[in-house]
């Protein structure tokens, strides 16, 4: 949430929506293959506006995450400019955290 930061225990219970990226739509742009994924997950109504998300790469190859967009129920769009390589978790032993570009 972009409001007051929750405690670690709250983060564990309220932010535990894990989704696997599957069935992406690929196309080429200037010779580079770009794959777009759409996922849906539940955010509790009292959570507030999400200000970050965690990405974990469980595949054996790195990938470049250009951006992510989140549409919340009131049709507000939250954009994350990531522009970063996400390496496999077995190489980094850590998740990646991306923050939104939305100013509240």
Automatic annotation (TrEMBL):
Residues 1-30 are annotated as: Disordered. The keyword Oxidoreductase applies. It comes from the Eukaryota. Keywords: Oxidoreductase. Residues 1-24 have a biased composition (Polar residues). Residues 1-100 form the PLAT domain. One of its GO terms (biological process) is lipid oxidation. Its EC number is 1.13.11.12. It holds the Pfam family PLAT. This is Putative linoleate 9S-lipoxygenase 7. GO terms for molecular function: linoleate 13S-lipoxygenase activity; metal ion binding.
């Amino acid at each position: 949430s972009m409001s007051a930061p929750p405690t670690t225990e709250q983060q564990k219970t309220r932010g535990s929506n894990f989704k696997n990226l599957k069935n992406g739509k690929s196309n080429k742009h200037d010779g580079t293959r770009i794959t777009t994924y759409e996922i849906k997950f539940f955010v509790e109504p009292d959570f507030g506006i999400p200000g970050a998300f965690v990405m974990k790469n469980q595949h054996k190859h790195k990938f470049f995450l250009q951006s992510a967009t989140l549409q919340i129920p009131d049709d507000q769009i939250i954009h994350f400019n990531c522009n970063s390589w996400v390496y496999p978790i077995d190489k980094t032993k850590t998740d990646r955290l991306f923050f939104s570009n939305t100013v509240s």
